[in-house]
Amino acid sequence: MLPLIGVGVIVLGFALRFNPLLVVVCAAMASGLAAGLGPLEVLAAFGKAFNQNRYVSIVWVILPAIGVLERSGLQERARTAIRAMKAATAGRILVVYLLARQLTAALGLISIAGHAQTVRPLVAPMAEAAAEGQAPLDEATRDEVKAMSAATDNVGVFFGEDIFMAIGSILLIVGFLDQNGLIVEPLHLSVWAIPTAIAAFLVHGARLLLFDRKLSKRGSQA
To answer: TM spans, by residue (predicted)?
Structure first.
């Protein structure tokens, strides 16, 4: 159980608002040392993981590209497109995005969308523009729309990715059960993730529609 000390380091570090990268590195170092690895062995594990996971470097390509697009008016174009759609509401847009996010995650396309790629430059501005057509927005309500957009992405990818049997979380569960004498096929876990994903879609979709109703009610009272 000693290697789990890393979890405590993460909780404590985030609670004290330390730098997230520093917290994660310290947590990994603490878990490695508790597992009996030396400092050099932990650093070697870091290097191996960095070389094997090439997606780490993709961030340095995505962020400048998104910055250039935003400077060229990406968010304004997204807002204009939504304002031209009379039937568009914040809740409906986010429900459609939730469905798309779950389906693509279920196919293993985790990196095709996300907070940096889609939520900040596209989804949140579109939802905000639709909400402006429903009711006058104060700063708190705008923040709530943005939070709903981010939460929709989180729910979609979290409950959709487990349907893809080659995802890391499924393989981790299979490996853990195998070490404890329980043989489970990845496909079986993926199949049983489908009802959970459907339930998550219905629950969060209902939250979005209720949020939609609240905005419409506020607009009718204004």
So the answer is: 58-74, 155-177, 189-210
Q: How confident is the model at residue 210 (pLDDT cuts 50, 70, 90)?
A: very high
CA 15 to CA 155: how far, in whole Å?
Answer: 23
DSSP per-residue letters across 159-221: HHGGGSTTSHHHHHHHHHHHHTT----HHHHHHHHHHHHHHHHHHHHHHHHHHHHHHHHHHHH
Which residues are CB-neighbours of 155 under 8 A, at least 6 positions away?
98, 200, 204
Sorted by sequence, the CB contacts under 8 Å of residue 178 that are 6+ apart come out as 184
Mean pLDDT of the chain: 84
Return the C-alpha torsion angle 199, 201, 202, 203, nearest 10.
80
The residues near 80 (Cβ < 8 Å, ≥ 6 apart) are: 129
Torsion of CA 221, 214, 124, 208, to 10 degrees: -160
Rounded-to-integer distance, Cα 44 and Cα 130, Å: 50
CA 169/CA 173 separation, integer angstroms: 6
Q: Is the pLDDT of residue 54 over 60?
A: no
| pTM over the 0.85 mark | no
* Higher local confidence (pLDDT), 119 or 51: 119
Specify the 3-state DSSP secondary structure of 53: coil
Buried b (16+ CB within 10 A) or exposed e, 13-51: beeeeeeeeebeebbbbbbbbeeebeeeebeeeeeeeee
